[in-house]
């Protein structure tokens, strides 16, 4: 089985058989493709300030056309960090339009803003899948998002006992979740082991499940 890290900021370790989607933040250049290392490219709300928003957007437009840039983002809304919400909202909406235009899913950074992101999806009715990365909400919130068509990517929070992320992960429908290490130094192997344990199945079954979900969003991720 080959692991799949749906969202990370570090290059995967060569000793682990893994595919990864590395989050590339504008205005960083798009790096060369390497086997198994895909990219998402977007304007992260934390790194808007000090940059010309229109120039950042140009970077996203250009990056979006590379084959190995398989998703747009992380883009989104953060109520605790970054520029005022109207600025964040404008840049997020621009990136939603790019995701629709190039037909690539959107990876979403949402801090205390899930409700607003949910409203946006309902009002904009996009054709592309939206994945909330690092989901850490209560099962009730998870259900609302699932009902609205979202995918949820779970991170290292599930490694710790009894928290709302773990509770939600236990209940999330099998066709809607992904796993990610994000900006932590946790290993994707440990995450798969724990995830299988929480959901009650083998690591191989879990691996197939994750791969199936990811391929549905990004057909280029198809392999064993
Ligand atoms: Zn991230």
Structure description:
The chain has 224 residues and is of the alpha/beta class. It has one domain: TIM Barrel (Alpha-Beta Barrel), CATH 3.20.20. Helices cover 38% and strands 21% of the residues. The protein has 7 helices and 8 strands; from the N terminus they run βββαβαβαβαβαβαα. It has an 8-stranded parallel beta sheet with strand order 1-2-3-4-5-6-7-8. Helix 2 links the parallel strand 4 and strand 5. Helix 1 (53-63) runs parallel beside helix 2 and helix 6 crosses helix 7.
Write the layout of secondary structure elements.
Blueprint: E1 3-8, E2 18-25, E3 37-42, H1 53-63, E4 69-78, H2 85-102, E5 106-111, H3 114-124, E6 130-132, H4 139-147, E7 151-154, H5 164-171, E8 177-179, H6 188-199, H7 203-217
Parallel strand pairs: 1-2, 2-3, 3-4, 4-5, 5-6, 6-7, 7-8
Helix pairs in contact: 1-2, 6-7
The structure holds zinc ion.
The site of zinc ion has 6 residues, from loops.
Give the CATH class: Alpha Beta
Briefly note the structural class of the backbone.
Answer: alpha/beta
User: Rg to the nearest angstrom?
Assistant: 16 Å
What is the H level of CATH, i.e. the homologous superfamily? Metal-dependent hydrolases
Helix tally?
7
SSE topology string: EEEHEHEHEHEHEHH
- Specify the helix fraction band: 25-40%
Low-pLDDT sequence parts:
none
Number of structurally distinct domains: 1
User: Which strand order does the major sheet show?
Assistant: 1-2-3-4-5-6-7-8
The CATH architecture is: Alpha-Beta Barrel
Q: Cofactors and ligands present?
A: zinc ion
């Amino acid at each position: 089985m080959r692991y799949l890290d749906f969202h990370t900021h570090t290059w995967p370790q060569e000793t682990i058989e893994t595919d990864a989607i590395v989050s590339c933040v504008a205005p960083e250049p798009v790096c060369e493709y390497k086997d198994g290392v895909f990219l998402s490219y977007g304007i992260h709300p934390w790194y808007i300030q000090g940059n010309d928003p229109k120039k950042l957007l140009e970077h996203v437009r250009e990056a979006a056309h590379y084959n190995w840039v398989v998703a747009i983002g992380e883009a989104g809304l953060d109520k605790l960090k970054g520029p005022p919400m109207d600025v964040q909202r404008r840049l997020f909406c621009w990136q939603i339009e790019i995701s629709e235009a190039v037909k690539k899913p959107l990876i979403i950074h949402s801090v205390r803003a899930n409700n607003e992101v949910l409203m946006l999806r309902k009002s904009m009715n996009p054709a592309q899948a939206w994945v909330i990365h690092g989901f850490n909400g209560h099962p009730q919130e998870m259900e609302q998002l699932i009902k609205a068509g979202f995918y949820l990517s779970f991170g290292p929070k599930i490694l710790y006992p009894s928290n709302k992320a773990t509770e939600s992960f236990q209940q999330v429908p099998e066709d809607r979740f992904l796993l990610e290490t994000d900006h932590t130094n946790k290993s994707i192997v440990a995450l798969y082991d724990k995830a299988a344990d929480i959901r009650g199945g083998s690591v191989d079954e879990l691996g197939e499940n994750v791969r199936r979900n990811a391929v549905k969003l990004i057909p280029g991720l198809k392999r064993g």
